[in-house]
Amino acid sequence: xxxxxxxxxxxxxxxxxxxxxxxxxxxxxxxxxTVGAGDSSLAGFLIAEERGEGAEECLRSGIRYGSAAAAxxxxxxx
Length: 78
Hints:
The structure is a single chain. The chain has two helices and three strands, in the order βββαα. The N and C termini lie far apart (25 Å). It has helices spanning 37-50, 55-70, and strands at 3-7, 13-17, 20-24. The longest helix has 16 residues, at 55-70. Helix content is 38%, strand content 19%. By secondary structure, the chain is an alpha+beta fold. A three-stranded antiparallel sheet has the order 1-2-3, with helices on one face.
């Protein structure tokens, strides 16, 4: 899928593909560290994409991974 996946920190993320554009917001998260949250978001997005998920699920997965990373102290990966 040709796409642009842009993380927006606490405001969620945006995904734009040839088929449309989506914005998702993260669940309430107690942020402990943002180190690696963007990388984790991208990993979640790519994992879902590799599994053949649709655009909306890829966006959700990216947001979930990024939120999980932000909730952990230091540089721990979710």
